[in-house]
Design goal:
mainly alpha
């Protein structure tokens, strides 16, 4: 296996491990926050609304950071793919030059349309 492949796998493994750790910590925080905020008595509608809003903040953070992590991973993958292709184009050997000794023999002028005073030629002349 090449060194680039090993580094890529290690980077992907570390990214996945970090994402999993973050998700576990966020889920633990959400569970702790919900357990801390819910008392044993009946809640008023205002208190329920406040609890819902306080529980939404960590969820929004979790979704936003997860989206950013996925976007970062995709962007880095595309950048690495592009930079490897660009490097391959720069390091390839130059193409052989185009032969220029007989350029005009390859050029053909377009057919000129007949002028108004000329007689038609070809099949049109017979009719």
């Amino acid at each position: 296996m090449s060194a680039d492949g090993d580094r890529g796998r290690l980077g992907l493994l570390l990214l996945l491990a970090g994402t999993l750790l973050f998700l576990l910590l966020a889920a633990g925080y959400i569970t702790w926050e919900r357990g801390r905020l819910v008392p044993g008595r009946e809640l008023t509608p205002a208190e329920k609304a406040e609890l819902r809003e306080r529980a939404r903040a960590p969820m929004r953070l979790l979704l936003a950071s997860g989206g950013l992590a996925v976007g970062f991973a995709v962007t880095m993958y595309l950048f690495l793919w592009w930079s490897r292709r660009y490097r391959a184009r720069l390091t390839r050997s130059p193409r052989p030059p185009t032969p220029v000794e007989d350029v005009w023999s390859m050029h053909r002028l377009p057919d000129e349309p007949p002028e108004e005073g000329d007689e038609p030629s070809g099949r049109d002349a017979d009719t």
